Amino acid sequence: MPIAIQTQCLTINSEKLRSALVPFSKIIKDNPAIPVHASVLIQVDGFADTYIQIVGASDIMRRVVQLPIDETDSQDAFACCIEYHPLVRVLASMTSQPITIDYDGTSAKLTSLHGTVTLPAYPARDFTNPNTVDRESLTFTVPADMTYALGEAIKRAKAYTINDALRPEFSGVWLSPDPESGGCRVDAVNTEICYYEYVDSIEVPGTFLIPGYALPALMPLLKWEMEVVIQVGKWIHFEAGGETISVRQMEHSPYNPTQIWDYFYANQENDITMVGSKDLLENMLLRIKTLPADHHDGDHIVAWENQKDMTYHYSDYHAEEIMPVTYEGPLNSRPKGFRASRLLAALSAFEGEVQLQTQSDAPGRAVFITFSKPKTKTMAMIMPIVLTGR
């Protein structure tokens, strides 16, 4: 004789549920081999809970959202897994109104003023919930007034990440402590550029990598001025405003960005240092980019020379422009150059004045250029340069 399954019922506002589900699109995959893996777990304790909990997970990420229960929500015990993408599509077609979800053990019926829709559903016990508990982990807090600043710094650093399956450290953003300022350092490294900047008043207990695949899901959590608690172990947990995002740490090389920067600075000697207006330099480069460029792989090579009148100098086959700078360096150094498109991309991270410094691993052979804000440690970037023939 078949066992009768008691139907569970949940009443909630459709727009409230839809808004909570939208961020899960960054975590839940579409059309997995096992359908329940594309589901969200919706549950209410019915006795102790004062919130509706929604959980979405994959083998590398987990998101938990707690929605406060108000007078229009039912407070009965409820737990089931509903396939995510069909559920979101149904909710998107509704106006803001109460809906009732009835789960009978095999399917979920959504009833509203528009009628009834039946969706695939599964028991809560079938939900794949990775073990994200770390006994050996470090915890620190991002103050509410610094959360947005940290999010913006990560966003800028993310622009310099690349997808590299063999070197995951190139696809993510690093956070590390800065003993000098007592703040946090944000790094991104790829095969051509190293980028970093500092965020004050955030004491990070150690260096760790936020994987690139987690950044799209994490960024919305760092847009608001609210305290964020971060726990770092085999999993990284970000908790704020009734929401928790857990990300599994990826295996990466033993070299972190700080060690890479230290390697550069330990093996190089300062060659030329110049300070100039970012706006003037950017405007000049934009004018240069309008010229034909049938050489250097379709790009312009911009070069500065150690002129006695201390000028920033550009020249190609078509035109020449000069921009005043503050210059320090030998007067017999060979001209240094780099691609205009790369410099434009680098300048987008800066405001006001920008300092450009070449460094060499041998006399007369410059290997990279550092961009930074003069007299500060706000942000900096290194990128390769080329020697010009002029």
Characterization of the model:
The structure is a single chain. By secondary structure, the chain is an alpha+beta fold. The chain folds into three domains: 8-126, DNA Polymerase III, subunit A, domain 2 (DNA Polymerase III, Chain A, domain 2), CATH 3.10.150; 138-213 and 246-257, Roll (DNA Polymerase III, Chain A, domain 2), CATH 3.10.150.10; 268-387, DNA Polymerase III, Chain A, domain 2, CATH 3.10.150. Helix content is 16%, strand content 39%. It contains seven helices and 26 strands. It has helices spanning 14-21, 84-92, 147-158, 215-218, 257-267, 278-289, 340-347; strands at 8-13, 39-44, 51-57, 61-68, 78-83, 98-103, 107-112, 115-122, 138-142, 173-178, 183-189, 194-199, 208-210, 228-232, 235-240, 243-248, 269-277, 301-304, 311-315, 320-324, 326-328, 336-339, 353-362, 365-372, 379-384, 386-387. The strands form four sheets. The chain has a twelve-stranded antiparallel β-sheet with strand order 1-6-7-8-5-2-3-4-16-15-14-9, with helices on one face. A hairpin with a 2-residue loop joins strand 14 and strand 15 (235-240). Helix 1 (14-21) packs across helix 2 (84-92). It is elongated, with a radius of gyration of 27 Å. It starts with 7 loop residues before the first strand and ends with a strand. Mean pLDDT is 76; it is low at 306-319 and 362-367.
